[in-house]
Specification:
Layout lengths: L1 H26 L18 E6 L4 E6 L12 H7 L8 H10 L4 H4 L3 H10 L1 E5 L4 E3 L7 E7 L2 E4 L14 E3 L4 E2 L1 H6 L6 E4 L3 E7 H6 L2 H18 L8 H9 L2 E12 L7 E17 L4 H11 L16 H12 L6 H14 L35 E4 L2 E4 L4 E10 L4 E2 L17 E13 H7 L4 H8 L8 H25 L25 E3 L15 E2 L7 E3 L2 E3 L5 H4 L11
């Protein structure tokens, strides 16, 4: 009996465990913090078996218990569950290190970063959850660690799911700081577009740990920067503090992307430290200069081996080529008109149109009306552009520097007061060279300068005219031609280094970047071999992505033909 009772208790425990697991599967489907399934089971994440008692199939999905990448670490969650006064310095420093992936957190000074890591708490909300409601008092501000939220003007945030292009904030952004600092009402509603993880700072902890004093130091720094600018010389301190309270400092490292298109950005940027570059993604295939340049160099490709000296034609060959090029192209349309005249005469119809050619003159020449290209020996895929045919591999793009923005300059207002027809709508990229900037929303700035004629007159003088795409393409080709000539000349003047007869065999390293990846080689455009190096593509706004190049290697004459004084390597006559 005891044995039967023990077996009964064991079976009861198994049933309870099965029911608990089923509750976990159904109720905690969004639980993603711990990885309890081995990777070997990922190939078949769903399995099932037939339950004889229930007379049904039980299905178990192991993917419900797998931790996904990008989520906030469980160790940091345990630290944030403690009270701020209970957290040790090592734990605060560990949280601070984890939060360095957030751009908005990294923009704060180091003392303020440590204080924020001390008072933060972790929250996770699902889709359609309203985080901030318009019109309510601000009691917290948030950092987005994972997920996406939308900004709306309604109370429940439902318009974000109906709008095809809602205003979104993603990982690395923060919101609500101004409202908690000045105890103001929320201006908009924030709603989660998906499962989102937040790091929250409450108003009580914010003031209890004296974070407001560190924030006030940053505000004083912004006030002194704006006060030194000639643009706001006529403003009072009270009005200037309104601008300071609505602005925010952001810091960017060298080579970091600030904006993909600052012309369409909703912010105005004041460069407070360092500098940045304005770049333009140039589609070389849309430039007439590039078309002419490519075909002029491709004409040097013939049936002989590439990269060889193009010998001079013999007198007989030059005469034959002259005969072919100078032979007039005939226009036989006059013969067709004569045939039509005879046909209409037989049918009894009259033909009164005069033909411009007579029997004693030669047929009419087409002359320059025919735009024919000499037959090329190029066998490669072609694409049709607005300017004619172009080899598919030659349809590339390049990043060109348009302007350098120095300390004290303003971005986002260079076309604010121009008519719509005169505005430059080209997408312009803003790249950091190691700088610090102060951002403010355009609508807030326009409210502050409304009816201020003196500031508007100063802003009108800030209009910057950027060069056209054709001018930048010509500059790119000139720089490329000079670089090619310089390398050829250096190779001719400097004697090549003699390599050992038996060079050691070195294994090739696997590298992502290859110098050939950003060089377009028109010399090998006839060859069918595929490149063994990666090709970098850049997305465009409304067009397919472009291959990015930094230089173009083209077939050319040897430098001895261009400069006869260089006859042999290393000798200058």
């Amino acid at each position: 009996f005891r044995r039967d009772r023990g077996l009964y208790q064991f079976a009861t425990d198994i049933i309870v465990m099965i029911r608990v697991c089923k509750m976990f599967r159904q109720g905690l489907r969004g639980f993603r913090e711990y990885q309890i399934i081995e990777s070997a089971h990922w190939k078949h994440p769903i399995f099932s078996f037939w339950d004889k008692k229930m007379q049904s199939r039980v299905t178990f999905d192991t993917m419900d218990f797998i931790a996904e990448e990008g989520h906030f670490p469980p160790k940091a969650i345990q630290i944030m569950q403690k009270k701020p006064s209970w957290r040790t310095e090592d734990e605060i420093q560990a949280v601070c290190n984890i939060l360095q992936v957030l751009d908005s957190y990294r923009n704060y000074a180091e003392p303020l970063q440590l204080l924020l890591a001390k008072v933060m708490r972790f929250e996770r909300f699902g889709r359609r959850r309203v985080i901030i409601k318009k019109g309510q008092k601000g009691n917290s501000f948030y950092f987005i660690y994972l997920g996406t939220v939308a900004i709306t003007n309604d109370e429940d945030g439902s318009s974000a799911f109906l709008d095809p292009h809602p205003k979104l904030l993603q990982k690395g952004s923060c919101f609500g700081e101004t409202d908690i600092l000045h105890a103001s009402l929320r201006r908009s509603t924030i709603v989660c577009m998906e499962e989102t993880e937040f790091l929250v700072v409450d108003r009580e902890d914010f003031f209890a740990n004296k974070l407001d004093q560190e924030v006030q130091k940053d505000a004083q720094y912004r006030f002194e920067f704006f006060r030194k600018m000639d643009l706001f010389a006529s403003w009072s301190d009270e009005k200037l503090w309104q601008l300071v309270n609505m602005s925010k400092i952001e810091r960017f490292s060298y080579g970091q992307l600030i904006s993909k298109d600052f012309g369409e950005s909703s912010f105005i940027m004041f460069i407070s430290k360092g500098s940045c570059e304005v770049l333009r993604l140039l589609d070389l295939g849309a430039s007439p200069s590039y078309h002419r340049w490519v075909w002029q160099h491709l004409e040097l490709i013939d049936d002989r081996a590439l990269k060889t000296h193009l010998r001079e034609y013999s007198p007989m060959e030059r005469f034959k080529e002259f005969q072919i090029k100078s032979y007039p192209l005939q226009d036989f349309s006059s013969l067709k008109l004569l045939h039509l005249k005879k046909a209409w005469g037989l049918q009894g119809t009259s033909f009164s149109r005069k033909i411009g050619t007579s029997g004693d003159t030669l047929p009419k020449m087409l002359g320059p009306k025919i735009q024919s290209r000499p037959v090329q020996s190029i066998k490669c895929a072609m694409i049709n552009t607005k300017l004619g045919e172009l080899p598919k591999e030659a349809a590339v793009g390049a990043y060109m520097k348009v302007h350098t923005v120095e300390q004290g300059e303003i971005l986002g207002l260079h076309q604010a007061f121009l008519p719509e027809g005169e505005c430059d709508t080209r997408p312009l990229i803003l790249m950091s060279l190691g700088n610090e900037l102060i951002r403010i929303r355009k609508e807030i700035f326009y409210e502050l300068i409304d009816n201020d004629d003196e500031v508007i007159k100063k802003l009108l003088k800030l209009n910057i005219a950027f060069p056209s795409d054709e001018d930048m393409c010509q500059r790119f080709l000139q720089e490329n031609s000079w670089n090619i000539f310089r390398k050829d000349l250096l190779r001719l003047l400097v004697e090549p280094r003699q390599s050992p007869p038996f060079p050691p065999i070195r294994p090739k390293k696997k590298e992502i970047y290859n110098p050939k990846s950003v060089v377009l080689d028109l010399c090998s455009i006839n060859k069918m071999t595929k490149p063994r190096y990666p090709i970098f593509m850049a997305p465009q706004k409304y067009l397919p992505p472009l291959r990015i190049v930094q230089a173009i290697k083209a077939p050319r004459y040897k430098i001895q033909e261009l400069l006869p004084q260089y006859k042999s390597a290393g000798v200058l006559i």
